[in-house]
Prior knowledge:
Helix content: 40-55%
Strand order of the largest sheet: 2-1-3-4-5
Organism: Sphingobacterium bovistauri
Distance between the termini: 87 Å
InterPro entries: DNA_bind_recomb_sf, DNA_bind_recombinase_dom, Resolv_N, Resolvase-like_N_sf, SSR_resolvase
Structural class: alpha/beta
Coiled coil: 357-384
Domain Resolvase/invertase-type recombinase catalytic: 3-153
Keywords: Coiled coil
Number of domains: 4
Number of helices: 16
Amino acid sequence: MKRAIRYLRFSQLGQSNGSIERQELYTDQWLKFNNVELVDTFIDRGKSARTFDRPDFIKLREFITKHHRTVDYLLVDQLDRFSRDAGEAISMVKELQKKYSIQVVSVTEGIIFDYDTPGSFFRAGLQLLLAEEDNINRSIKVKGGIYTAKAKEGRYVFKNAPFGYRKEGERKERRLVIEENEAKIISFIYDSYLKNTPLYLIKEQAQKLGFTTKGNMAIERVLKNPIYAGLLKVDAYKNYEGGLFNGIHEPIIDKTTWTLVQQKLKRPEKTRTVIDDEIPLRGILNCHCGHPLSGAPSRGKSGKYFYYYKCKHSKHNNISAVKAHNQLLEICDLMSLPITRVRKIRTETKNSLDSVLENNRKNVIEKKNQLQEVEEKLFSVEEKWIKNEINKDTYQRWYSIYNDNILNLKGAIERLSNDKSVAFNILEKNLNMLTDMRHVYSVADTLQKREFVKMVFDSNLYYENGIYRTPTMLDLDQAEFLGG
């Protein structure tokens, strides 16, 4: 009597075990009809057939290695249960038959793999190719669905919510909702980074506040994640462009802050520069060859020291620091805004702030109504518990849910109720400074001057043939933001 082992599989954990029961039924019928004894069964639940790296399939191969002399067949319901990669599957079939004298049988499709029978092998190969094509088509549909969900609908499709958010709702109604306590930590990380706090210190402080994400690059991943600015990163799909798209979730930080952080992340200062008040541009002003200019004093015949900016290639640049500084002040004059533009900024900013305050006011009212509803539900649960209408487990479960909702709603109300007029007052106080950028630069200390140049020219300020050059410059909208 011939003997067989069988392999059963379904790919998604959410599927019913009925899939396995059906496969068992069909293989049992084949065994009975062909008078073959079943030796053992191997089952992979929730495993893809793209590769053979599956727990029970590995056990199956180990079994074959030890007991192949007592096995004639390997049964599967259909060939796609065995594998969806035609190349790998055919190689495996050849190995099982040539090395171990075991033939693979697809009971539903009525195919017995036989490498020595051309017709049989052709049919089996065709079925495997069809299974692989089905897998490719399925992958394309999944990618299309993800693109539509993210780019068109603005939905976050990944299983786990990023730190700062939780997921609420079912299926297409599921969306990210801000976790207020975690959101405060995210805001702290962004604010600290823009204030030039070293990353390791940000991480230490964030962990003390409750930041739980692990890994050496955890802070960098938070800073680079567009989710926190209400954006979704979408990969290109067919003829549809990828990029950043607006999400339907509420942002934790504004887009301007996120953009400034990305610009700052692009060009971290690679070399440690000794700060000298006489040559504040050392290390951030570049030669036209691309190398940062160094700076040093040179002693004149009278014994007085004169400062110069120099390129390591001696024939490129050797610039008087006085000349370079005076030229930069002239550039500051050109960057200064006319008073009419400043007035327009003031008006538009006030209108924008009024709009934000009005939206926040409406959101506060909505959150307060939600808070009242949840508090009433919690009171109702407590009442039922007192009256013995619900058991302890039910009470504790609903108490935990409602209490978490209450804490988050109170946090949202507190955040939305913050007095945004403080920011406008700061802007109002400093806005006129935009009309005299020479003064802004002149009164700054050395560190502020360096940061001013790096930010305004995006670390792309060069010197060539006696003049400054730059391919990039902070645009007006961001300059207005920085003015506040």
